[in-house]
Amino acid sequence: MHELPLVFFTVFGQSAVGLFLLAYLSKKMGSIDEKQLKNANILAFIVAIIGLGIGGLHVGQPLRFFNMLLGVGRSPMSNEAFLSGVFVGCAAATLFFTLFYKQSVLRELANIATVISGVAFVWSIPQVYNISSIANWNTGYTTLQMWMTMLVGGGALAIAIGARGLGLASFLLGALVIFASRAGYQAFLTETGPMISTEQTGFWGFQVVVLVIALAGFIGMALKQRAPKATLATCVAAVLLAELAGRIAFYNLWQITM
After folding, report:
1. Which chain regions cross the lipid bilayer (predicted)?
2. Which of 36, 81, 239, 253 is deepest in the core (most CB within 10 A)?
């Protein structure tokens, strides 16, 4: 758990991107209105800022963040840092043109830029961890789980702001892929790091159980068409906790190949 700041940085960042994406698509499909899109973008920005702020603790001194940008284009870590900054900057511009300088064309362009830069940011994250010297991380399962957090976390947040159609579909797809790939992932880790992977059973078990419960809850709420805000908030918080647990397990797999 020594990489806890990065746990929050990646999970919250990916979930925020998912919400920006799903809310924008839902608005284009007519399933949410302007007010709901505004609320979604505000919530996504807050989640992203919390993730970035906690992730900054990993750097130690704030100015070191700028040193990380020196390798943009050749260093996966620098690319990740750069794209996270672009994503947050575009998100801030979206809110600026939504809340303060209300300009619909600029708001639309900023929102599109936020979605595109956000997806690029999510893409950049697993590139940092596909390292040949760390066999437990050097697998397609690493990339898969990073993208699924975007779908699961973003889907849960989207359901909470009213984008139930795409939100539930995204959450369902992400959860099912996590469930379906878990056996293969465990088999892979049994070969590369059996002892250290066994130690993560509690984290992975918590993740799967909570996702199953949340899935049942979201489906039940969708059928009823209405749900108490407190219940929705609890489900979303539980989903984010589940993804944080799964990410803790991932970082705990760090082990140099001998």
Report:
1. 6-25, 37-61, 81-101, 108-126, 146-163, 170-189, 201-223, 230-254
2. 239
